[in-house]
């Protein structure tokens, strides 16, 4: 089992942080490993939306489809793989800690199977490192504008 949770505080209002992070068109601006996103259903993002991702992780190209399972703007976004190398769920949550600061939490959970299962501990460490860098980039992007 892989279960990685990271968080950051962005010195911007919750509406700005959540709107930017939840917009699939912004994903490649703050995720270093995600190279391309393609809408498979019509925008805007909502429960049932499907998005094709191309990512590079641990030296491998990964192609997978995420489906938005739950979307409460400004509160929570949950996506799970509808198709891909192994089942994964990604959850974003946002909490206002002041009128001008937001805590964003990013959680990835999944069950690698077969040969990949042997690398779950290594994958967890690599995901935590990548997620921390991605959240730092998101913070920098939003606080510099």
Describe, in plain words, how this protein is organized in 3D.
- With 145 residues, this protein is an alpha+beta fold.
- It has helices at 14-22, 27-30, 120-143, and strands at residues 2-10, 34-39, 50-57, 60-72, 76-83, 88-98, 101-110.
- It has a 7-stranded antiparallel beta sheet with strand order 1-7-6-5-4-3-2, covered by helices on one side.
- The chain is globular, with a radius of gyration of 15 Å.
Keywords, separated by commas or semicolons:
145 residues, globular, 45% strand, 3 helices, single chain, alpha+beta, seven-stranded antiparallel β-sheet
Q: Report the principal-axis shape.
A: globular
The separation of the N and C termini measures 38 Å
Q: What is the β-strand count?
A: 7
Radius of gyration: 15 Å
- On the 0 to 100 scale, the average pLDDT is 91
Quick rundown:
This protein is an alpha+beta fold and 145 residues long. It contains three helices and seven strands. β6 (88-98) and β7 (101-110) form a beta hairpin.
Secondary structure blueprint with pairings:
Blueprint: E1 2-10, H1 14-22, H2 27-30, E2 34-39, E3 50-57, E4 60-72, E5 76-83, E6 88-98, E7 101-110, H3 120-143
Antiparallel strand pairs: 1-7, 2-3, 3-4, 4-5, 5-6, 6-7
